[in-house]
Design brief:
644 residues, alpha+beta, six-stranded mixed β-barrel, 15 strands
């Protein structure tokens, strides 16, 4: 391919190099890279330039703050040597890793990692409890080994070796499960998470899994090793019971593990419940328009063939008219950024009828382009004044329609905005002045869970833009008109590619992908924690009942009713659950502040959610305890007394 010619937008370019497959620049993938100077219009005004990004390698010891100060000093020198309208512009510097992940995503991933750690702690508590029961059952064996000369370090090495073997086998099986889960995660994960598709079980992951397995084996095996060092040789050798060596200290440690499991489970249940409520609240937000039966076609006209404003206007006018002729298409409108698509940029502004703001306090607003039909087609409510009309043409008074957020922040009342004049760029830049003729409802421009931002609309008829999204209102499922939309675009100009073709509901739904993803994951971790906690509660209570079989048999033999046995064992289980729920509630309430950046529409310190999470954990504990309690009340007193 080297030396071959490639035509882009009517301009031939010589291919001078080929990158390796899959190479991405920052978070965006590209198929072609052009030299920057060739893409700039030398006749473009300096005041209308776009921002530009660059990559720099910092020298040793230089921070991003120092680099920003350096760049600002350079820009100030340029302003003095070559004055212009952008003299007050400054640089923005950040680390590439932080730019790619973003603060909110970083917080989300850290919270999910914390949830994984809590689930791992519950699993460790379960394993430690089981190993402790196993070591208690082997008390006589350990006593025999000590009696024939085995020292305590030798016993510790034996038990730790056994635990590490179990941990390594479990870690290997976990890696096999992780390989399947990772493929599922990539399939369901949103594309907004950088490099999610690049995630693999590589060597660092394998090393991490190995170290984690070893640490789990050591952590879970500490209690049995310590318990083995405290075996009473005389008692253990005299007794033949498989539970020889169990005592108050062992039961107390296992009870503490159950309490910790319940507390951690409550924390995860509370957090996942908040995110689920938050997702529901975001999905119920009024987007400010009617997304049903809307199909969008994203187009950008090449500048080489559509050089003037008239040609751009004519193309979109012909395409709109052609689409309206399609059966089932009710109306067609134009906009540069439909709700859910984000913004196409922001700019300073000022109001001529209001005092001039200081140079450092000029407000910002988003801007958009729309034609006369857009607000009607999208179902956006007109709050005051009017929408654009066919009489708003080049040569007439430049007009704008603003959203309710801008009207309230600038005037306090939408009605007061009518007839006022919005100066684009603020009072210190050379830019047009627009008369406000209407105020429309706010729309979920960035996402359903984002705050409304101020925004004004240019009239497309007065300011045609080559990049537009054609919005079609259909009589049924808009997906049925996708092929028709492709055909009409191709018939008008087959050399114009469709950048995207999807429904308005898809635009909106995609804005909640990251929230939905984190909610699903945290919900799964919460459910897994409840399962593990129920297993731990069952195991500890079942062992507690086993060690008290003879005591229960004696109580029954002397006339104790089974209801008293149930009350006695039930109070023990209830006491553990109550302590765990109280401690978990305190922990969840204090940790809720870490969820503030992820929660929308609900309070992080929600008492009803705390009560609900506590009730859910209590139900799980009751279900896990039901079988051991049933076993306690159905003890065979005669058989147990004969064995005694």
């Amino acid at each position: 391919m080297i030396g071959e010619s490639l035509e882009l937008d009517g301009t031939p370019y010589e291919i001078i190099g080929v990158l390796s497959p899959g190479r991405k620049f920052l978070w965006r993938s590209a198929e072609v890279y052009l030299p920057l100077g060739r893409t700039q219009n030398p006749a473009e005004k300096r005041s209308e330039h776009r921002s530009i990004g660059g990559l720099g390698l910092l020298k040793p010891g230089i921070t991003a703050t120092g680099a920003k100060a350096n760049l600002d000093a350079i820009m100030q020198r340029l302003a003095l040597s070559d004055p212009g309208p952008e003299d007050d512009h400054r640089s923005y510097v950040s680390y590439l890793a932080e730019d790619m992940t973003g603060g909110e995503l970083r917080t989300t991933l850290l919270i999910l990692m914390g949830a994984v750690g809590l689930v791992l702690l519950i699993a460790c508590a379960n394993v430690a409890s089981l190993l402790l029961v196993r070591s208690t059952a082997r008390a006589r064996e350990i006593a025999v080994r000590v009696a024939i000369g085995a020292d305590r370090p030798r016993l510790a090495r034996q038990l730790l070796t056994e635990n590490l073997v179990l941990a390594v086998i479990g870690g290997a099986l976990g890696l096999l499960l992780a390989a399947w889960c990772l493929r599922t995660l990539i399939l369901i994960g949103p594309r907004s998470i950088p490099r999610l598709t690049d995630a693999t079980l590589d060597l660092p992951v394998l090393l991490f899994a190995t170290v984690a397995s070893i640490l789990v084996g050591l952590l879970a095996g500490v209690a049995p090793v310590l318990n083995a060092g405290k075996v009473d040789l005389i008692t253990a050798l005299k007794e033949g019971s498989p539970t020889s060596g169990s005592g108050k200290r062992g039961h107390g440690f296992r009870n503490a593990l159950v309490i910790a499991e319940i507390a951690i489970t409550l924390i995860l249940a509370f957090a996942s419940g908040l995110l689920i409520r938050s997702l529901i609240a975001a999905q119920r937000v009024n987007p400010g328009f009617d997304p049903q039966h809307l199909l969008t076609i994203e187009l950008e006209l090449p500048g080489s063939r559509y050089k003037g404003d008239d040609s751009v206007r004519d193309y979109y006018s012909q395409l709109s008219q052609s689409l309206r002729s399609e059966p089932g298409v009710e109306d067609v409108g134009l906009v540069t950024a439909p709700p859910g698509a984000g913004d196409r940029g922001d700019y300073w502004y000022s109001i001529l009828e209001k005092p001039t703001p200081p140079r450092d306090d000029v407000p910002l607003t988003l801007f958009n382009f729309a034609d006369a039909n857009y607000f009607r087609v999208a179902g956006i409510r007109i709050i005051a004044g009017r929408a654009f009309s066919n009489t708003d043409r080049v040569g007439t008074t430049p007009v704008t329609v603003i959203n309710e957020q801008l009207a309230c922040s600038a005037f306090g009342d939408p009605q007061l905005a009518l007839g006022k004049h919005l100066k684009v760029g603020g009072p210190y830049m050379d830019a047009p002045t627009l008369q406000i003729v209407g105020v429309v409802a706010n729309t979920s421009q960035e996402s359903l869970d984002a705050e409304n931002a101020p925004m004004f609309y240019y009239a497309f008829s007065q300011n045609p833009h080559p990049f537009m999204v054609v919005v079609m209102r259909t009589s049924g499922d808009p997906a049925q008109w996708m092929n028709a939309a492709r055909r009409h675009v191709s018939e008008l100009d087959r050399n114009i590619p469709i950048q995207s073709l999807r429904t308005a509901e898809d635009w909106l739904g995609a804005t909640l992908d990251s929230r939905r993803f984190s909610t699903v994951l945290l919900g799964l971790f919460g459910a897994l924690a409840m399962i593990l906690a129920s297993v731990g509660i069952y195991g500890v209570l079942n062992y507690w009942v086993s060690t008290r079989q003879r005591e229960i048999a004696i109580r029954l033999a002397v006339g104790g009713p089974r209801s008293a046995i149930l009350r006695w064992a039930g109070l023990h289980a209830a006491r553990l659950a109550a302590i765990g729920i109280v401690l978990g509630g305190i922990g969840a309430w204090n940790a809720a502040r870490w969820l503030e950046s992820l929660v929308f529409g609900v309070k992080v310190h929600s008492l009803p959610m705390m009560v609900s999470a506590g009730a859910a954990v209590l139900v799980i504990a009751a279900l896990a305890a039901s079988m051991p309690l049933w076993r306690a009340t159905h003890t065979d007193a005669v058989r147990n007394l004969h064995e005694a």
